[in-house]
Amino acid sequence: MKKTRLLVDLKPALDGFAGIPQETRLLFANLKRLGEAFDVDGLIQHGAGVLSSNAADNGAGLPPHQKIFRDSRLVSSLCMSAARTIIPGLPRRTQRKLYVELLRWQSLRDRPVGLGSFESPHFDDFIWRHLFAKSIDVADKALVTRSRFRVVAPARRNMHDVGLQSVSRFVRPRYLALDTEDYDFLLVQTPFPARVGPRTRLVVRYHDAVPILMPHTIADRTYHQAAHYGALKQNVADGAHFACISEATRGDLLALFPEVEKRTTVIYNMVSDDYRPGDEPVSRAFDIIANRLDREHDDLGDRAGLGTAIRAFGEGGGRYLLMVSTIEPRKNHELLVAAWERLRHARAPDLKLVVVGGNGWEHEKIAEAMHPWMRRGELLRLTKVPTAELRVLYAHAAATVCPSLAEGFDYSGIEAMRSGGFVVASDIPVHREVFGAGAAYFDTYSPQHAAAVVGRLLGEEGAAERAAVRTAGAAIAERYMAANILPQWREFFAGHRVAGA
Fold first, then answer.
1. What span, in angstroms and rounded, lies between the C-alpha atoms of 146 and 122?
2. Domain count across the chain
3. Would you say 355 and 381 are in contact if contact means Cβ atoms under 8 Å apart?
4. pTM
5. Residue of 34, 66, 10, 428 lying closest to 190 (CA atoms)
6. Same domain for 126 and 101?
7. 115 and 9 inside one domain
8. How many CB atoms lie within 10 A of CB 93?
9. Structural domain includes residue 142
10. 3-class SS of residue 83
11. How many whole angstroms separate alpha carbon 102 and alpha carbon 108?
């Protein structure tokens, strides 16, 4: 039987912990479990830097030491934002502009960009720690690191620039093509700024339309809005299929491009089975909080003294609300802080707020609201929390709060449910769709209502409802386990190959 050949975009895996980077890692690892009927390779590309690549000859005929040295150079180039040297001595910014011009002419001549090969067995430590370790259990290390990897030398930003800018007012821009003839499918995690070969089906994992529908919540708006829209429009024109992560996301896509309705499918994100109820004591949660304090706390007071106070608070039966999300406007941290302040003053003076997440777009205003409470040791911001520790925080939180203005899926709520936690969320369509009865809901724009809902549910009068929500959450979270999602991918690939490929 002819194998189905999949090439999976891993570029987001080089980025952060949660969201699209996490989905990228989990999806790749589980697609590797599809069986012998599938060959699954990873596609490596830098976001802003040009990679060293052997696309011209893939190292054919070279002695081992030269092949390995080539791969070593690739690893080095992945660790920095390098520019391709066109004319020695010119500044990096000028080199990048010249390189984009060369790529633009390559696209107009319709010459595809070749894919290099990366021999990962010699560099499995790099592959593991830089691409997969943030989300994948170490038991699966060999599964993912001993894969075949292909390399795109131009940066993703270069490819966007080629498609967005014309050579002159008389020449329409044209996106680069990739030489994907070895593959039946190229599966990407965002609108993709390139064209694929005629025998390859492009599958866009569509997460959300935030850059277009909510541009006021992102940074570098003009560029990200144009890059998302331009690549998405090209993907639609090229006949791509869109595997949306929720019906809400699918609805947003169809509002933009109703003509792709028959080329859309909803396959929800899968959640790591590392999230599960445990038996760690609550003191373990407060140890984690003390140990994972973000470095901002160093500038706001005595960090060592704060750590001791946190542990003492936990030993005294203290409680905390938990939010897990990148710090950016659409995540609605400011509403949560305002609601928590009201709750403290009204009925829960000892309730702390724990926020887990790194800085995202336009985080500065949010930080201003958080810093006074951080200085007092009441709001505790954590970063770089691994899965095994995050599971403990979910389990022991008085509630995990998901207050976002917009989401494509929202991992944190499902992870909390899987860990035995209790979830309260903003009343937006995607939360109702994904969380169902596994969460309690509050008005997305009302701190007063959020404080009232959380306060009632954390009190004695809310005990029965809290228990019912927690029980429903445990059942709902099962829907998003790999055992239930992976068969949907198998069926999808079976029904969407290019005719004749």
1. 10
2. 2
3. yes
4. 0.92
5. 10
6. yes
7. yes
8. 9
9. yes
10. coil
11. 10
